Amino acid sequence: MPFDYLYSSIAPLVIKNISMPIAKNPFERYKIIDKHLKRNKGFTIKELTEIVNEELRMFDRNSNPDHSREVSDRMIRIDIQNMPQIFPIEIVKKGSKYYYENVEDSIDNINITEADKTAITLAIGIFSRFNGTPLYDKFSDAVTRILASSVLRKINTTDSKRYIQVAEVTEGAGIEWLETIYNAIIDKKALKVHYKSFGEHISIKTISPYMLKEYRNKWYMIAYAKEIKHDNKTILFKLGRIDQIEESYEDYYIDPKFNQEQYFRYTLGVFHLHDSTPIEVKLKLTGPIANLVSEDRIHPSMEILSKNEKEMIVQIRVYETPELYSLILGFGEYAEVVEPLELRIKMKETLQKMRFRYE
Protein backbone atom coordinates (compact mmCIF):
# COMPACT_ATOMS: atom_id res chain seq x y z
CA MET A 1 0.00 0.00 0.00
CA PRO A 2 1.28 3.53 -0.78
CA PHE A 3 1.07 4.75 2.79
CA ASP A 4 2.98 1.70 4.02
CA TYR A 5 5.82 2.56 1.69
CA LEU A 6 5.65 6.23 2.62
CA TYR A 7 5.72 5.46 6.32
CA SER A 8 8.63 3.05 6.05
CA SER A 9 10.56 5.58 3.98
CA ILE A 10 10.04 8.69 6.06
CA ALA A 11 9.27 7.44 9.57
CA PRO A 12 12.94 7.35 10.68
CA LEU A 13 13.35 10.88 9.40
CA VAL A 14 10.26 12.09 11.22
CA ILE A 15 11.37 10.47 14.46
CA LYS A 16 14.75 12.16 14.24
CA ASN A 17 13.12 15.45 13.42
CA ILE A 18 10.85 15.48 16.47
CA SER A 19 13.60 16.36 18.93
CA MET A 20 15.78 18.36 16.58
CA PRO A 21 15.18 22.10 16.06
CA ILE A 22 15.25 22.80 12.33
CA ALA A 23 14.89 26.22 10.77
CA LYS A 24 12.00 26.58 8.40
CA ASN A 25 12.67 25.32 4.85
CA PRO A 26 16.36 24.36 5.32
CA PHE A 27 16.49 21.96 2.39
CA GLU A 28 17.44 24.47 -0.25
CA ARG A 29 20.52 25.22 1.85
CA TYR A 30 21.22 21.51 2.29
CA LYS A 31 21.20 21.00 -1.48
CA ILE A 32 23.60 23.90 -2.02
CA ILE A 33 25.99 22.73 0.72
CA ASP A 34 25.81 19.15 -0.61
CA LYS A 35 26.56 20.26 -4.18
CA HIS A 36 29.80 21.97 -3.11
CA LEU A 37 30.97 19.39 -0.56
CA LYS A 38 30.68 16.74 -3.28
CA ARG A 39 33.47 18.57 -5.11
CA ASN A 40 35.80 17.02 -2.50
CA LYS A 41 37.09 20.46 -1.69
CA GLY A 42 37.01 21.80 1.85
CA PHE A 43 35.09 24.94 2.79
CA THR A 44 35.04 27.09 5.91
CA ILE A 45 31.76 28.09 7.50
CA LYS A 46 32.26 31.63 6.19
CA GLU A 47 32.86 30.36 2.64
CA LEU A 48 29.79 28.15 2.74
CA THR A 49 27.71 31.05 4.07
CA GLU A 50 28.80 33.26 1.17
CA ILE A 51 28.10 30.47 -1.37
CA VAL A 52 24.65 29.70 0.05
CA ASN A 53 23.66 33.38 0.19
CA GLU A 54 24.80 33.97 -3.38
CA GLU A 55 22.83 31.03 -4.75
CA LEU A 56 19.73 31.95 -2.73
CA ARG A 57 19.94 35.51 -4.07
CA MET A 58 20.19 34.20 -7.63
CA PHE A 59 17.21 31.93 -7.07
CA ASP A 60 15.15 34.75 -5.55
CA ARG A 61 16.00 37.13 -8.38
CA ASN A 62 14.68 34.59 -10.88
CA SER A 63 11.63 33.38 -9.00
CA ASN A 64 10.65 36.16 -6.63
CA PRO A 65 12.44 39.49 -7.15
CA ASP A 66 10.61 41.11 -4.23
CA HIS A 67 11.88 38.51 -1.78
CA SER A 68 15.49 38.12 -0.66
CA ARG A 69 16.91 35.77 1.93
CA GLU A 70 20.10 36.00 3.93
CA VAL A 71 21.51 33.32 6.21
CA SER A 72 24.12 33.68 8.91
CA ASP A 73 27.30 31.77 9.72
CA ARG A 74 25.46 30.35 12.73
CA MET A 75 22.68 28.95 10.52
CA ILE A 76 25.18 27.22 8.22
CA ARG A 77 26.97 25.78 11.25
CA ILE A 78 23.64 24.35 12.47
CA ASP A 79 22.98 22.94 8.99
CA ILE A 80 26.37 21.19 9.03
CA GLN A 81 25.47 19.64 12.39
CA ASN A 82 21.95 18.59 11.32
CA MET A 83 22.63 17.16 7.87
CA PRO A 84 24.35 13.94 9.11
CA GLN A 85 21.40 13.33 11.45
CA ILE A 86 18.98 13.44 8.53
CA PHE A 87 20.90 11.96 5.59
CA PRO A 88 23.32 9.00 5.26
CA ILE A 89 26.44 11.20 5.24
CA GLU A 90 29.41 12.09 7.46
CA ILE A 91 30.86 15.60 7.51
CA VAL A 92 34.31 16.03 9.05
CA LYS A 93 36.31 19.11 9.97
CA LYS A 94 39.97 19.37 9.03
CA GLY A 95 41.50 22.53 10.36
CA SER A 96 38.88 25.19 9.69
CA LYS A 97 37.37 23.47 6.64
CA TYR A 98 34.56 20.95 6.29
CA TYR A 99 34.58 17.91 3.98
CA TYR A 100 32.55 14.81 3.25
CA GLU A 101 34.39 11.97 4.98
CA ASN A 102 33.66 9.72 1.99
CA VAL A 103 33.92 11.12 -1.54
CA GLU A 104 30.78 9.13 -2.42
CA ASP A 105 28.70 10.79 0.31
CA SER A 106 25.70 12.84 -0.78
CA ILE A 107 22.23 13.66 0.47
CA ASP A 108 21.08 12.04 -2.80
CA ASN A 109 22.04 8.61 -1.52
CA ILE A 110 18.62 7.51 -0.28
CA ASN A 111 18.32 3.77 -0.70
CA ILE A 112 14.85 3.15 -2.08
CA THR A 113 13.55 0.93 -4.84
CA GLU A 114 11.61 1.90 -7.95
CA ALA A 115 8.51 0.47 -6.26
CA ASP A 116 9.17 2.76 -3.28
CA LYS A 117 9.45 5.78 -5.58
CA THR A 118 6.18 4.96 -7.32
CA ALA A 119 4.44 4.43 -3.98
CA ILE A 120 5.78 7.69 -2.57
CA THR A 121 4.59 9.54 -5.68
CA LEU A 122 1.08 8.22 -5.13
CA ALA A 123 1.16 8.88 -1.39
CA ILE A 124 2.32 12.47 -1.86
CA GLY A 125 -0.51 13.08 -4.29
CA ILE A 126 -3.03 11.71 -1.81
CA PHE A 127 -1.47 13.45 1.20
CA SER A 128 -1.48 16.80 -0.63
CA ARG A 129 -5.22 17.09 0.07
CA PHE A 130 -4.20 18.05 3.64
CA ASN A 131 -1.98 20.91 2.43
CA GLY A 132 -2.40 23.97 4.62
CA THR A 133 -3.43 22.02 7.70
CA PRO A 134 -1.41 21.45 10.88
CA LEU A 135 -1.43 17.72 10.08
CA TYR A 136 0.31 18.36 6.74
CA ASP A 137 2.75 20.87 8.20
CA LYS A 138 3.87 18.38 10.85
CA PHE A 139 5.19 15.98 8.21
CA SER A 140 6.04 18.37 5.39
CA ASP A 141 9.71 18.60 6.46
CA ALA A 142 10.12 14.85 6.10
CA VAL A 143 8.35 14.79 2.75
CA THR A 144 10.39 17.73 1.50
CA ARG A 145 13.56 15.98 2.62
CA ILE A 146 12.73 13.05 0.39
CA LEU A 147 11.90 15.37 -2.50
CA ALA A 148 15.24 17.11 -2.08
CA SER A 149 17.05 13.98 -3.25
CA SER A 150 18.01 13.76 -6.91
CA VAL A 151 16.87 10.16 -6.74
CA LEU A 152 13.34 11.55 -6.46
CA ARG A 153 13.88 14.85 -8.20
CA LYS A 154 10.99 14.20 -10.56
CA ILE A 155 8.67 13.55 -7.65
CA ASN A 156 7.39 16.90 -6.41
CA THR A 157 4.05 18.12 -5.23
CA THR A 158 3.75 20.59 -8.10
CA ASP A 159 4.52 18.28 -11.01
CA SER A 160 2.76 15.23 -9.57
CA LYS A 161 -0.56 17.11 -9.64
CA ARG A 162 -0.41 16.86 -13.42
CA TYR A 163 -0.60 13.07 -13.18
CA ILE A 164 -2.27 12.37 -9.83
CA GLN A 165 -5.49 14.13 -8.95
CA VAL A 166 -7.34 13.61 -5.71
CA ALA A 167 -10.61 15.10 -4.63
CA GLU A 168 -10.20 18.63 -3.33
CA VAL A 169 -11.21 19.24 0.27
CA THR A 170 -14.17 21.58 0.01
CA GLU A 171 -14.82 24.61 2.16
CA GLY A 172 -16.33 23.68 5.49
CA ALA A 173 -14.80 20.20 5.50
CA GLY A 174 -13.45 20.78 9.02
CA ILE A 175 -9.88 19.74 8.29
CA GLU A 176 -8.54 22.44 10.61
CA TRP A 177 -9.73 20.34 13.57
CA LEU A 178 -8.22 17.04 12.43
CA GLU A 179 -4.97 17.20 14.38
CA THR A 180 -6.59 18.35 17.64
CA ILE A 181 -9.19 15.59 17.52
CA TYR A 182 -6.71 12.95 16.38
CA ASN A 183 -4.39 13.76 19.28
CA ALA A 184 -7.31 13.60 21.71
CA ILE A 185 -8.21 10.13 20.41
CA ILE A 186 -4.64 8.88 20.79
CA ASP A 187 -4.10 10.51 24.20
CA LYS A 188 -7.64 9.66 25.40
CA LYS A 189 -8.45 13.23 26.39
CA ALA A 190 -11.87 14.83 26.58
CA LEU A 191 -12.59 18.05 24.68
CA LYS A 192 -15.08 20.90 24.89
CA VAL A 193 -16.60 21.46 21.47
CA HIS A 194 -18.62 24.51 20.44
CA TYR A 195 -20.94 22.88 17.91
CA LYS A 196 -23.30 24.57 15.48
CA SER A 197 -26.60 22.82 14.88
CA PHE A 198 -28.82 23.06 11.78
CA GLY A 199 -30.46 26.20 13.12
CA GLU A 200 -27.13 27.99 13.59
CA HIS A 201 -27.46 27.60 17.37
CA ILE A 202 -24.12 26.89 19.06
CA SER A 203 -24.05 24.56 22.03
CA ILE A 204 -21.08 23.37 24.09
CA LYS A 205 -20.60 19.64 24.40
CA THR A 206 -18.06 17.69 26.44
CA ILE A 207 -16.93 14.92 24.15
CA SER A 208 -14.69 11.87 24.20
CA PRO A 209 -13.70 11.29 20.55
CA TYR A 210 -13.26 7.76 19.24
CA MET A 211 -12.95 7.87 15.45
CA LEU A 212 -12.47 10.15 12.45
CA LYS A 213 -14.08 9.39 9.08
CA GLU A 214 -13.92 11.08 5.70
CA TYR A 215 -16.87 10.82 3.34
CA ARG A 216 -17.38 12.76 0.11
CA ASN A 217 -14.65 15.25 0.97
CA LYS A 218 -16.19 16.04 4.38
CA TRP A 219 -14.77 14.95 7.73
CA TYR A 220 -16.76 13.46 10.59
CA MET A 221 -16.05 12.44 14.16
CA ILE A 222 -17.67 9.71 16.22
CA ALA A 223 -17.62 10.78 19.86
CA TYR A 224 -19.36 10.29 23.17
CA ALA A 225 -21.15 13.50 24.15
CA LYS A 226 -21.94 13.88 27.83
CA GLU A 227 -24.75 16.40 27.29
CA ILE A 228 -26.82 14.24 24.92
CA LYS A 229 -30.14 13.52 26.65
CA HIS A 230 -31.02 10.14 25.09
CA ASP A 231 -29.36 6.85 26.00
CA ASN A 232 -27.15 6.63 22.92
CA LYS A 233 -24.64 9.36 23.60
CA THR A 234 -22.02 8.19 21.08
CA ILE A 235 -22.99 9.95 17.88
CA LEU A 236 -21.66 11.44 14.66
CA PHE A 237 -20.41 15.04 14.50
CA LYS A 238 -19.62 16.94 11.32
CA LEU A 239 -16.28 18.69 11.72
CA GLY A 240 -17.40 21.54 9.48
CA ARG A 241 -19.94 22.54 12.12
CA ILE A 242 -17.36 22.92 14.88
CA ASP A 243 -16.89 26.57 15.77
CA GLN A 244 -14.29 26.15 18.52
CA ILE A 245 -12.50 23.44 20.50
CA GLU A 246 -11.21 23.86 24.06
CA GLU A 247 -9.42 21.59 26.49
CA SER A 248 -11.61 19.80 28.99
CA TYR A 249 -10.57 18.81 32.49
CA GLU A 250 -13.18 16.09 32.66
CA ASP A 251 -12.20 12.43 32.39
CA TYR A 252 -12.20 10.71 29.02
CA TYR A 253 -15.18 8.38 28.90
CA ILE A 254 -15.02 5.01 27.16
CA ASP A 255 -18.46 3.92 25.95
CA PRO A 256 -18.68 0.16 26.61
CA LYS A 257 -21.28 -0.17 23.81
CA PHE A 258 -19.06 1.42 21.16
CA ASN A 259 -17.31 -0.98 18.81
CA GLN A 260 -14.93 0.66 16.36
CA GLU A 261 -14.92 -2.33 14.01
CA GLN A 262 -18.72 -2.66 13.96
CA TYR A 263 -19.91 0.95 13.99
CA PHE A 264 -19.99 1.38 10.19
CA ARG A 265 -20.51 -2.28 9.36
CA TYR A 266 -24.01 -1.77 7.93
CA THR A 267 -23.49 1.80 6.74
CA LEU A 268 -23.20 2.93 3.14
CA GLY A 269 -21.82 6.35 4.06
CA VAL A 270 -21.83 7.92 7.50
CA PHE A 271 -25.37 7.42 8.76
CA HIS A 272 -25.47 5.05 11.72
CA LEU A 273 -28.87 4.02 13.08
CA HIS A 274 -28.76 3.22 16.78
CA ASP A 275 -30.72 0.16 17.86
CA SER A 276 -31.88 -0.48 14.30
CA THR A 277 -31.72 -3.78 12.50
CA PRO A 278 -30.09 -3.77 9.07
CA ILE A 279 -32.12 -5.10 6.17
CA GLU A 280 -31.24 -7.63 3.48
CA VAL A 281 -31.48 -5.87 0.13
CA LYS A 282 -31.57 -7.93 -3.04
CA LEU A 283 -30.88 -6.05 -6.28
CA LYS A 284 -31.12 -7.10 -9.91
CA LEU A 285 -28.45 -5.33 -11.94
CA THR A 286 -28.16 -5.26 -15.71
CA GLY A 287 -26.06 -3.66 -18.45
CA PRO A 288 -22.86 -1.81 -17.60
CA ILE A 289 -23.80 -1.52 -13.92
CA ALA A 290 -23.63 -5.30 -13.52
CA ASN A 291 -20.07 -5.35 -14.83
CA LEU A 292 -19.09 -2.36 -12.70
CA VAL A 293 -20.52 -3.79 -9.47
CA SER A 294 -18.94 -7.18 -10.11
CA GLU A 295 -15.55 -5.43 -10.13
CA ASP A 296 -16.17 -2.86 -7.37
CA ARG A 297 -18.26 -4.08 -4.48
CA ILE A 298 -20.89 -1.57 -3.39
CA HIS A 299 -20.61 -2.72 0.23
CA PRO A 300 -18.38 -5.13 2.19
CA SER A 301 -21.41 -7.36 2.84
CA MET A 302 -22.19 -7.76 -0.87
CA GLU A 303 -22.74 -11.28 -2.16
CA ILE A 304 -23.30 -12.23 -5.79
CA LEU A 305 -26.24 -14.65 -5.72
CA SER A 306 -26.40 -15.29 -9.45
CA LYS A 307 -24.89 -13.97 -12.67
CA ASN A 308 -25.31 -14.53 -16.37
CA GLU A 309 -24.72 -12.57 -19.55
CA LYS A 310 -27.86 -10.45 -19.08
CA GLU A 311 -28.14 -9.77 -15.35
CA MET A 312 -26.67 -10.19 -11.91
CA ILE A 313 -28.45 -10.59 -8.57
CA VAL A 314 -26.59 -9.24 -5.54
CA GLN A 315 -27.46 -8.95 -1.87
CA ILE A 316 -26.24 -6.45 0.71
CA ARG A 317 -27.00 -6.08 4.40
CA VAL A 318 -27.31 -2.39 5.30
CA TYR A 319 -29.32 0.16 7.24
CA GLU A 320 -32.26 1.70 5.42
CA THR A 321 -31.01 5.26 5.05
CA PRO A 322 -31.15 8.04 2.43
CA GLU A 323 -27.76 6.79 1.22
CA LEU A 324 -29.35 3.45 0.26
CA TYR A 325 -32.00 5.24 -1.82
CA SER A 326 -29.33 7.38 -3.46
CA LEU A 327 -27.27 4.32 -4.33
CA ILE A 328 -30.17 2.54 -6.01
CA LEU A 329 -31.42 5.64 -7.84
CA GLY A 330 -27.87 6.33 -8.99
CA PHE A 331 -27.93 3.06 -10.94
CA GLY A 332 -30.89 4.38 -12.94
CA GLU A 333 -32.65 1.98 -15.31
CA TYR A 334 -30.03 -0.71 -14.68
CA ALA A 335 -31.13 -1.53 -11.11
CA GLU A 336 -34.28 -3.08 -9.69
CA VAL A 337 -35.09 -3.80 -6.05
CA VAL A 338 -36.16 -7.44 -5.76
CA GLU A 339 -36.42 -7.62 -1.96
CA PRO A 340 -37.60 -6.55 0.55
CA LEU A 341 -41.07 -5.74 -0.71
CA GLU A 342 -41.36 -2.63 1.50
CA LEU A 343 -38.26 -1.10 -0.07
CA ARG A 344 -39.46 -2.03 -3.55
CA ILE A 345 -42.74 -0.19 -2.90
CA LYS A 346 -40.91 2.87 -1.57
CA MET A 347 -38.65 3.01 -4.61
CA LYS A 348 -41.68 2.71 -6.90
CA GLU A 349 -43.41 5.60 -5.11
CA THR A 350 -40.25 7.70 -5.30
CA LEU A 351 -39.90 7.08 -9.03
CA GLN A 352 -43.55 7.99 -9.62
CA LYS A 353 -43.05 11.29 -7.80
CA MET A 354 -39.92 11.96 -9.84
CA ARG A 355 -41.84 11.25 -13.03
CA PHE A 356 -44.54 13.75 -12.07
CA ARG A 357 -41.80 16.39 -11.63
CA TYR A 358 -40.95 16.10 -15.30
CA GLU A 359 -44.49 16.09 -16.64
Describe the structure in your own words:
By secondary structure, this protein is α+β, with helices and mostly antiparallel strands. It has three domains: 1-166, no CATH class; 175-247, SH3 type barrels (Roll); 279-357, Alpha-Beta Plaits (2-Layer Sandwich), CATH 3.30.70. The chain contains ten helices and eleven strands. The strands form three sheets. It has a five-stranded antiparallel beta sheet. A four-stranded antiparallel beta sheet has the order 9-10-8-11. The model is unreliable at 1-23 and 149-157 (pLDDT under 50).
Please summarize the sheet with the most strands: 5 strands, antiparallel
| Rounded radius of gyration (Å) | 28 Å
End-to-end separation in angstroms reads 50 Å
What is the tally of helical segments?
10
Widest sheet, order of strands: 6-5-4-3-7
- Overall residue-averaged pLDDT value: 79
Secondary-structure-based class equals alpha+beta
Question: How much of the sequence is in beta strands?
Answer: 15-25%
Summary tags:
359 residues; alpha+beta; SH3 type barrels; Alpha-Beta Plaits; five-stranded antiparallel beta sheet; four-stranded antiparallel beta sheet; 10 helices; 20% strand; disordered N terminus
Summarize the helices and strands and which ones pair or pack.
Layout: H1 2-18, H2 27-37, H3 45-63, H4 73-86, E1 91-94, E2 97-100, H5 114-127, H6 134-147, H7 178-187, E3 191-196, E4 202-215, E5 218-225, E6 234-238, E7 242-247, E8 279-286, H8 287-295, E9 303-307, E10 311-318, H9 322-330, E11 335-339, H10 341-357
Antiparallel strand pairs: 1-2, 3-4, 3-7, 4-5, 5-6, 8-10, 8-11, 9-10
